Every structure is written in C-alpha cells, then in structure tokens.
Amino acid sequence: MSEPTLLVVDDAREIREFVADVVLRPSGYRVLEAADGATALELVAQEHPQLVISDIKMPGITGLDMARAIQHEWPGLPVILITAEGSEEIAQQALRAGAVDYFIKPFDPDELLQSVQRARARAAAPRPAAAPAHGSDLETLLALSREAASPLDADRVLPRVVEAAVHLTGAEAGALWVAEAGGDLAARAAYGAAGGPERLAAADTLAGQVLRSGEALQLAGGGHRLASGAEAQAVLYAPLRGREQVLGVLGVENRQAARAFDERALRLVRLLADYAAITLESAQLYSTVETERTRLYTILNEIEDGVIVLDADSRLALVNHPARRTLGVERVDVAGQLVADVINHPDLLALATGDRRVSEVALADGRTFSVRVTPLAAIGRVLIMHDVTHLKELDRVKSEFVTTVSHDLRSPLTSMLGYLSLLERVGPLNERQQEFAQQLRTNVQAMTSLLSELLDLGRIEAGLDAQKEILPISGLVHRLVEEKRPEARERGQVLHLRVAAGLPPVPMNVVRLRQALLSLLDNAVRYTPEKGQISVDVYTEGEFVVITVTDSGVGIPPADQPYIFDKFFRAANVRGQYPGAGLGLSVAKSIVEQHGGRIWVDSSPGTGSTFSLMLPTARARSA
C-alpha cells in the first residue's frame, strides 16, 4: 500500500520544512510543499493529496481562500489551518471556510500529528446507515450552514439538505418539494430510493397535507401510501416555513425497515427544513436583486449621458461607459478610488468636490458638456454629463448671425432717422404728417434699442467686457434707485431702498452690472400700477451679496416662469399690453452669470414679483 500524500503550504520555508521533516515524514507520510496558495491548488489538482496543512496569511491567495476553494472543488478533502494570531474571530473564519482544525503558532508537533490522523480517519470512514452520533450531527449541520451561507445556489444546496436529512435520521430515502403557483408540489431534490413523480397534487398526498396545514407529519406502523404508489413503513414530513407562507415540504421515508422516526429525527428534519426555506427565500431575493442590478447597470451604460457616482469621501462608486469614453478612463475597476486619482479634468474635479451644482465643462477635444451635480443623502453625489456641443455651436452661429444683422441694420436705421429730421427743413408738415413722422421716429428708436441689446448680449456671451474691478456695491445701487425715483414718483409709486451695513466689496464690471440692475428696476416700474410699492434690498448671505427687487405689479403666470429669462420670451399676461422685446431679462441673466452669480424669480399673478440675484464677494472669488 502506497504511503498517504499530504500537502504543506506556507510562505515561510522554515515552517514548511519543520512540518514536513520533523512532524510528517517520520510518521510515514509523503509530503508535498508549496509556498503560495496558487501553487498549492495546482498540486491538489495534479497530485490529489489526502490532507492539506496551510498557513492562513499568505500573499495572493490566503489560507482561508484556499480552504474555501478546496471545499468547493474537492469537497471532503480535509484542511488544517495554522495561524500566528489566534482569536475567536479567526476560529470562526476557519470553521466557515471548511477547515477541520486550526493551530496557533507555536504549536505542539504531537497535537498536529494527532489532528492529521483524526482528520484522515474521519474522511475515510464510511457513512453509517443508522442514525449517527450527536457529534456527527453537529459537524453535518455546520457544513450545511456553510454551504447555505455561500453564493446562493438553491440547486446545489437543496440536494445537500435532503442528503443530510437522510443520513442524520438514518432514513432510507428522502425528498424535497417546492410549492408552485397552482398549488401543486414540484420535486426539487431526492436522495436514496425516494424517486416518484416530478409533481404532486397537493390535494391527495401526505406532502400536500403538510403544505396546507403548515405542521409536521410523523407516521409509523406501516401501510402508508406514497405519491409514487409505493408503501412506507414510516414517514416524517416537515414544512418549509417562509416569512409569509409555507414554501414546500421536506420528507424522509423508511420503506423496508419498520423503524419509526423519533423526536430527535423530528427536530433535525424541522431544522433542515428551515435551512431549505432560508435558502429558497435568499436565492429568490438574490436573483431579484441581481436582475434589478443588471437592469440598472444596463440602463446606466446604455444612456447617452455620462454618470459619475461619488461617495461621501469623494471616492468613485460608479463611472458608466459614456463617462469612461468621454474622460478616457481605461481602468476596469475604479470603485473605491479617489476621484482625483482617476479623473484629471480640473473643472470637473472642482464640481465633484465643490459646492457648485451646475456648470459647463469644455474638453480638450472641443466638446462641451453641461454637468449637473445632485447630492444624495447617505450616498454622496451624482454627476450627470450631457453633451451640449451641438447646442453651443448653434448658439455661436445664431449669435454671429444676430451680430451681423444688427450691424447691417444700424446704417439704414441711422439714415431713416436722419431723413426724418430733414423732413421739417424742406417744408412745413401738417398735423397728420407730424404724427406719422413721430410714429416712425419712435419705431426706429425702438429698433435701434433692440439692436443695441442684441449686440450687448452677443458681446456678453462671447466673454467680452469681462474686465472687473473690486468696488462696493452699495454706491451703485444707491445711484440707480435715485435715478429711477423721479419716474416712480410720477406714477405715484413708492420706491424703498434698504441696504445692510458693512457690505463686502464685489468684483464687478460697473457698466454691465449697472445695465442688469437697471433692467430689473425698469421692469418693476413698468409692470407696477400707479400707487404701487417697489422695494430694493441689499444684504449678505454667506460669501455672497444678495440684491432683491420686489414689486406689487401684475406678476408672472407659473407656466411662464421657467422661460422668463429666455431670449425674446414675454409672459402671456403682458404681451400686447406693455412695450418690450423680451431681451432685458436675458441680458441681465448673462451679465449676472458672467459675474459668477445667479438670478431667479418668485412671482404670483396679481400680487407681484421678486427678482433676486446673488453675486460672489471678492473673498469668495479669490477662494
């Protein structure tokens, strides 16, 4: 008879040689040695040793990982683990990995040798037909619990449950059925001579009785008719109790032997039925979660927008395929990496780690993306990247067209105004002719003003007139309010100004910011009826200066408010009643955004509107 082969695995050569030369070889064992887990698994596949002794901590594949792999690929091959640090947690990990024993360095050679002999004897011993001892019960249940805690494969675990039920109770056969939607039972696993049909009618079978009642059934005395047509001397069925309903039935049978099942067998079958129920529910839940996860990942990777998910520590949780292509992220696994280690675009990093919520990001290849940041409670934040390159190009072409047309129209309009002025010099005009000339002059001036606004908007959007100087905001607001006060007084309106003390200076282009604020004041006076109220408030909020213009005018319909800052848009309740081209607020918005601020409106029809704008202070811009 050839000498038994054992495998010793340890990255420390002195430990391998000690176990092999001092403990095992003198006792008549053939010993193989490996310095790492990968080599050890190759030797197991090639040499088929009868036992493996391994250190827990090794580079690459650890001893625990190797033990799990052996239990999966070569079930029944005993593994003894050795560790330098003993603890209850390590003992539990070793047990869950399938180890039959584990030792703490330094260990007694005789104890290790005895453990090897016990493990080999247990592995070689035939499985008894009668009910095993309680110690064997525990080992079988622990092994089964490890399988149930492994990746959820009900088709692999359920046959093991039936096999364990047969062996632990000393039965001749066993089977497990799962309830179907129509009320019948479908066979999922069988062991021994159970056999029988693949489906049982729950109405007229013993298993169906257990399914309906939810209670275990224990019969002895012989003559019990089974669904297969055979008779049994003793049967024991237990329900698979789920959280909300009975999922199926686990049963064991003695067809030849007249031995009845005792209370111990009943407890074991009930326990195993609970294992099976947990496995079925967990597998179903796992399948549902996997299906939803796959669907979510498919959606995220197939949409055109880039999606980047960050946790609270600015580490990447997800980068979908469009975002990877856009940013050139070639690393396969980026989860857990700091965003700054994977993405090197400065504007995108500023959005990912800063307080801004929306911005445009220009890439080196000429594309422009609108990036929106959404904070998520208990997760972090999500960045959505939408390609707006074509929109930017359309906007550029449109702006060039508007600028060209505006320049080309100025000359004929100037000529028209000049000839209107000369009409009275060539001869007197009657009253009707003077009225027509004045109407022409008013229309030409309106067109000239419109062209000026279009040109201003083009210059602002092109980034011209961007020079700024740090000045106090209070002086500019005071001058504008005093400038509009006579017009408001003529209309019987009351114009209030409240400026908080100690306002910090603001980086501003005085001409453009004056234009934006004047547009808001003009609108307030124009759309507020006589004897109405207009209030201008200036105060600080954090690192920003806030300016609000509130009126008691006609207000803006809710449906129109999202578009009020669009070019040439006018609210439905003022079209045809008040003069204007719908460009003033668009120009004001562009000016405010060029200053790094934002503008918005709160309004109710019939009660008035409040336009608010926030401008970063000099300290905020420097930060």
Report on the structure:
- By secondary structure, the chain is α+β, with helices and mostly antiparallel strands.
- The protein has five domains: 5-124, Response regulator (Rossmann fold, 3-Layer(aba) Sandwich); 134-286, Beta-Lactamase (2-Layer Sandwich), CATH 3.30.450; 309-385, Beta-Lactamase (2-Layer Sandwich), CATH 3.30.450; 391-461, Helix Hairpins (Orthogonal Bundle), CATH 1.10.287; 469-622, 2-Layer Sandwich (Heat Shock Protein 90), CATH 3.30.565.10.
- It contains 18 helices and 25 strands.
- A six-stranded antiparallel sheet has the order 8-7-6-13-12-9, sandwiched between helices. The protein has a five-stranded parallel sheet with strand order 2-1-3-4-5, with helices on both faces. A five-stranded antiparallel sheet has the order 15-14-18-17-16, with helices on both faces.
- A hairpin with a 5-residue loop joins strand 16 (358-362) and strand 17.
- Helix 16 (510-526) packs antiparallel against helix 17 (584-594).
- Mean pLDDT is 83; it is low at 127-136.
Task: Jot down its keywords.
623 residues; alpha+beta; Rossmann fold; Beta-Lactamase; 5 domains; six-stranded antiparallel sheet; 18 helices; 25 strands; 44% helix
Q: What's the helix and strand layout?
A:
Layout: E1 5-9, H1 13-24, E2 30-34, H2 37-47, E3 51-55, H3 63-73, E4 79-83, H4 88-96, E5 101-104, H5 109-124, H6 134-149, H7 154-169, E6 173-179, E7 185-192, E8 199-200, H8 206-213, E9 217-219, E10 224-225, E11 231-232, E12 234-241, E13 246-254, H9 263-302, E14 306-311, E15 316-319, H10 321-327, H11 339-342, H12 346-353, E16 358-362, E17 368-376, E18 380-387, H13 389-423, H14 431-461, E19 469-471, H15 473-490, E20 494-499, E21 506-508, H16 510-526, E22 533-541, E23 544-551, H17 584-594, E24 598-604, E25 608-616, H18 618-622
Parallel strand pairs: 1-2, 1-3, 3-4, 4-5, 20-22
Antiparallel strand pairs: 6-7, 6-13, 7-8, 9-12, 10-11, 12-13, 14-15, 14-18, 16-17, 17-18, 19-21, 22-23, 23-25, 24-25
Helix pairs in contact: 1-5, 2-3, 6-7, 6-9, 7-9, 13-14, 14-17, 15-16, 16-17
